[in-house]
Specification:
Radius of gyration: 14 Å
Number of strands: 7
CATH topology: Hypothetical Protein Aq_1857, Chain: A
Shape: globular
Structural class: alpha/beta
CATH architecture: Sandwich
Oligomer: single chain
Strand content: 35-45%
Mean pLDDT: 87
Helix content: 10-25%
Low-confidence stretches: 101-105
Number of helices: 2
CATH class: Mainly Beta
Order of helices and strands: EHEEEEHEE
């Protein structure tokens, strides 16, 4: 699987696991198409993966990723934003078209 997690996103995920779980917990990231970035996510902290989830270790973080998430996250950078407009995980997908009016040269 080929995706990146920024330090800000990693810190957020660690905080979520500390708040809602324990040392054995993982972070379930169910990604679906939608939203400006092309992806939206349903996140939860859980002790065990759901049937069909892949368990992916990243810097000691345990991520539980359903099959659709694994496909959609290919090549994506998972970031964390804390702005007036948005707080939470942000998916930067070079393949996606965004809602903003950036010009591509």
């Amino acid at each position: 699987m080929n995706f990146a997690i920024t330090p800000a996103a990693e810190k957020f995920i660690r905080f979520m696991i500390r708040s809602d779980g324990d040392a054995t917990s993982g972070f379930r990231l169910a990604v679906s198409p939608g939203g400006c970035s092309g992806l939206s996510a349903d996140i939860s902290v859980t002790r065990t993966p759901v049937s069909g989830d892949a368990v992916v270790e990243h810097n000691g973080l345990k991520l539980f990723l359903p099959a659709e998430s694994r496909l959609l996250l290919d090549g994506v950078t998972i970031d964390f934003a804390d702005t007036a407009a948005q707080t939470g995980l942000v998916f930067r997908d070079p393949k996606a078209t965004t809602c903003s009016s950036h010009s591509h040269s």
